[in-house]
Structure formats: C-alpha cells, structure tokens
Amino acid sequence: MNAATIPISGLVFGLLLIAPSILLIWWFKLGINKQLLVSVVRMLVQLSFVALYLKYIFLLDHILVNLAYILLMVLFAAHSGIRSSSLRLKKLLVPTFIAMLLPTLLTLLYFNWAIVQLEHIFQADVLIPVAGLMLGNTLKSNIVALKTFFNSIRKEEKTYCFLLGNGASKQEAARPFMKEAIRMAMAPNLATMATVGLVSLPGVMTGQILGGSDPVLAVKYQIMVMVIIFFNSLLSNILQLFFAIRQGFTKSDQLDKSLLDQG
Questions:
Q1: pLDDT in tens, 10-31
Q2: What is the distance, to the nearest Å, from the Cα of residue 137 to the centroid of all Cα atoms in its chain?
Q3: Which residues contact 214 (CB under 8 A, 6 or more apart)?
Q4: 36-51 as b/e: b if 16+ CB within 10 A
Q5: HEC profile of 158-219
Q6: H or E element that contains 6
Q7: Distance CA 134, CA 217 (A)
Q8: Domain residues of the chain, as ranges?
Q9: Residue pLDDT, tens place only, 44-61
Q10: Counting Cβ atoms within 10 Å, is residue 65 exposed (0-12), middle (13-18) or buried (19+)?
Q11: CB 61 within 8 A of CB 121
C-alpha cells in the first residue's frame, strides 16, 4: 500500500477552509474569529518547529535528550492543566507535574518493553509520539477531574462539613467527591473505547493506514494505545486528586477558597 502524501498545494487548499469558517463565525456572531486566527497561527508555528526539531531528536536518539523532552512535555501539560482548571498555579504545579510524570514514565517504559518489545526502550521515535498521545488525553481528563472535584465540594460544602462533623477524616469526607470526579474524568475514555471502530477510526489507526501500514498492525497499535491511555489517565487522575486533597484544604480541613483563583 502506498502512503498518502500531502503536497504543499494540499496544505494551502486545506488552510483555505479557514475562510468559510470565519464567514460562518461572523454570520452567527459567535465572536471567536480572533481566537480562531490566533490559534491557527500558533498551531502553524508550533508544529513547524516540532517538525524541525523532532527530526533531529529522532536522528540523535540520545536517552538524556529524550527524557529531557518528556520532562518538558509534562511540565507544559501540568501548567496548561492548572490554568485550564482555573486553579492557583503556584500551589498545584509541582503536585500536578508529579501526578502526570510518574504514570507517564511508568506506562511508556512498560509499553516499549512489554508491548512493542523494543531493544532500546528509550527509542525516540516511539517514546516521544506515544508520550504525546498519553499526555494529551491525560491532560483533558485531569482538567475534568480537578474542576469536578473542587466545584462539587464548593457546591456541596455543607455535605462535606456534615461528614467531618460526624467524625470523618478529611480524606473520608472528600472520598465521595473524588469518586465522582474520577468517574466524570474517565467517562469520555470509556465512551471512546466502547464505540471505536463503529463510530470513529481513531488518530493512531488512521495515521498508520494513511502512512501505508497494514490495517491489522494499525488495529493492534490502536488497541494498545487506547489501553495505555486509559490506564495512564486513571492513575494520573487518582494521584492528582490525592495531591489535591492534601493541598486544597486549610489546617482545619476546610476548602481553601483561595485555591480556586488563578495566580
């Protein structure tokens, strides 16, 4: 099977779709044209740089460079996650970084060693793309988990205080909110797993098929990628919320309202 390529003219034709998008946004007065243009420009610049430096990172394929790049990816993901959750950056950045880094490294090394069975488990052209797939999904689920957890406790603060007043520890009183946050965060992953192949053909599988890979191999990769994404997101969410319980309350076990402000 020949790989489907995209020439420069194809990129130009693809970007032309932005024009009718702008017209539709203007017609319905959605007010997001500026945001759209900024996002498109940022995407083009960022992905152009990615195409350039990943080429050299893959050629170099040095373990320290690969790990440093993973650390940088996790740091940006943690920063973005806290900002998107409308929480205080200074207090939660380090816990969020750890909650994302540990599951990601664990899952990545297991994927490369036990599933793909690479001789070089830090191989850049596998390690970095798979890390990006996992972090993108983990970031989305962490945002949902954090928002759901803190918003639920803020709305149901009387219930939380009632549990404390009846002898529950902070961890015990927060557990129902933690469970609900994890369920909400993992719901999209479960829905995607249940409908894959029927409703949609996911990105990994589609990309491999367009790149000329055997569809059977593409399916194998897609199955494994979805499993590790689910595991990584679940473990990261649990760690994230355990850290949130430690960091998000005062010494008297009351919700720290200042945490809900960006800073």
A1: 999 999 999 999 999 999 999 9
A2: 3
A3: 1
A4: eeeeeeeeeeeeeeee
A5: HHHHHHHHCCCCHHHHHHHHHHHHHHHHHHHHHHHHHHECCCECCHHHHHHHHCCCCHHHHH
A6: none
A7: 20
A8: 1-60, 62-260
A9: 998 898 888 888 999 999
A10: middle
A11: no
Measured CA to CA, the distance from residue 14 to residue 38 in angstroms comes to: 17
Q: In 3D, which of 159, 183, 184 has the Cα closest to residue 173?
A: 159
- Residue 120 is encoded by which pair of tokens? 């070089």
Main-chain dihedrals φ then ψ at residue 121, nearest 5 degrees: -70, -10
CB neighbours of residue 57 within 10 Å = 18
Closest by Cα among 235, 261, 259, 233 to 245? 259
Q: What is the pTM of this model?
A: 0.85
Question: What's the CA gap between 184 and 69, in Å, rounded?
Answer: 30
